Amino acid sequence: MTVNGSDAREVWKKCLAIIKKETNVQTFKTWFEPISAVSLNGNELMVLVPSKFHYEWIESHFVNVLRKSITQTLGASSVLKYQISRDEEELAAEPTEMPVAEIRTPAKPAQELPVKLQFGSTRPVSEEPVTSNLNEKYTFDTFIKGDSNQLARAAAFAVAENPGSNSFNPLFIYGGVGLGKTHLIQAIGNRVAKSGKVKNILYVSSERFTVDFVNSIQHNKVSDFSAYYRNVDLLMVDDIQFFSGKEKTQEEFFHIFNTLHQTGKQIVLTSDRPPKDMKFFEERLLSRFQWGLAADIQPPDLETRIAILNHKAAQQNFLLESEVVEFIAMNVTHNVRQLEGCLVKLMAQSSLTGAHINLGMAREALRDIIKPSKINLSIESIQRIISEYFGISQDLLIDGTRKQEIVRARQIAMYMAKEFTQSSLKTIGNHFGKRDHSTVIHACESVKNQAETNEKYKKTLDDIRRKIDMSM
Ligand code: ADP
Ligand code: MG
Question: Which of 27, 177, 188, 407 yields a CA-CA distance of 20 to 30 A from 361?
């Protein structure tokens, strides 16, 4: 017996309440809010997901929490079935079943499971593809994956597999300087160019777009300009924040955007901030930026920084001791371009002197990038700065009560200790009343999550970071 939609909605609402408790706000909004309930048949709940990619992502990343929510709501033998939204072209004709009883717990934590992204098939290339402004060195192969860029990378990859026919149109990638936005958007272009899936591929910086547009006005060639862009199948515009305040350019872009979007052409944009924080932009343009998916790139964590350095060194056949790699990765935390800068400097040093670079030489060579005092910053000095900042005693901070403000300060202190010192999680835990390393991990994640969702909290962190920086 199939029960009507309102019961299904009730059940799904209960599931969502459980899921909400287990995931952070961003994850919940991106992956669970767009899902709706379709029907309830006994203990089988059918839900509608926006795309195949969406389904694959939640299935590979959130299977445990989904199982928990459905078994708690409908009992142990309940089944969750997926239906993929009809406007996805290549959707499987049959709904995909996911019998809850049969879900096996993955050996690895769910977060680390690879995303199964297999869309469409590659068509043979019949003609030379028209590509513009692509730099071949920026590919997915050379882009190192990490928690900090997971969503943006996976979405970029999905777009490259199926330009135009995916739910990420436009794909809007945002993040700070030197974190790989240009690399990722170029990787889309290069991959699509290689596959030959679409012909006219164009990458432009927003400055280039603006200058060309202004020139076209001066030379009475606006219609040529416009026709040129409307002919593109995959348009990538980098650093769109520079359109800020340029009304005419925005208007032209708005029309190009609409034409491309309506004809199923793919648009990918990057910016240094999310759409909601873009000032001096027309509302109608901002709202379009949010039609698809806005995915951010965060600064990479330590492991990813190490992987990036190792990868780049290997690319250049440059041998680096792990000690040196770690030294750089520990100290250059917020910009991948700067990580590369350190490598280049060391390579130059090594080729000039013919010497093998050891830690001492690296410290010396990178003095202007990595301040020597930063290396010696201790966990104790971070504790001192943070207890002063929050006006609590250092003893309380280290090993005091579970009062909320104190826990909050302690978590921030652990987080900063991880960011600013070379200490292991275990050592950091030891400095906080012999707490376990998993407590430190939990603290760091909690701080990260709060910083992502709470502007005020993020400001506090930045404030503290400045204080620590100044103390060095
Ligand atoms: P953005 O456009 O965000 O300012 P870029 O894409 O120009 O940053 O990246 C700066 C440099 O760092 C580039 O050389 C890029 O190849 C490199 N880079 C950034 N992120 C990664 C990554 N995850 N893996 C490999 N290289 C990266
Ligand atoms: Mg860039």
Answer: 177
Q: The tokens of 441 are what?
A: 């991990």
Q: Is the CB of 179 under 6 A from ligand 1?
A: yes
Q: 115 lies in a domain?
A: no
Quick check: 192 and 155 in contact, CB under 8 A? no
Q: Given this model, what pLDDT does residue 4 score?
A: 63
Dihedral over Cα of 56, 61, 64, 67: its sign: negative
Cα(133) to ligand 1 centroid in Å equals 17
Residue ending a domain, choose from 249, 267, 297: 297
Please check whether residues 83 and 173 belong to one and the same domain.
no
CA of 295 to the centre of ligand 2 (A): 15
Residues 317 and 270 in one domain: no
Number of domains the chain contains: 4
CATH of the domain at 337: 1.10.8.60
Distance (Å) from CA 105 to ligand 1 centroid: 35
CATH number for the domain harbouring residue 434: 1.10.1750.10
Q: What is the pLDDT of residue 179?
A: 97
Give the ligand whose atoms come closest to the C-alpha of residue 336. Answer: 1
Neighbour count for residue 339 (Cβ, 10 Å): 23
Q: Phi and psi for 176 in degrees, rounded to 5?
A: -65, 175
Last residue of a domain, one of 341, 365, 389: 365
pTM: predicted TM-score of the whole model, two decimal places:
0.60
Minimum-distance ligand to the CA of 272? 1
Contacts of residue 301, defined as CB under 8 A and 6 or more positions apart, other chains included, come to 146, 147, 148
Which atom of ligand 1 lies at the shortest distance from residue 297's CA?
3
The domain containing residue 317 runs over which residues?
302-365
**Is residue 228 scored above 50 in pLDDT?**
yes
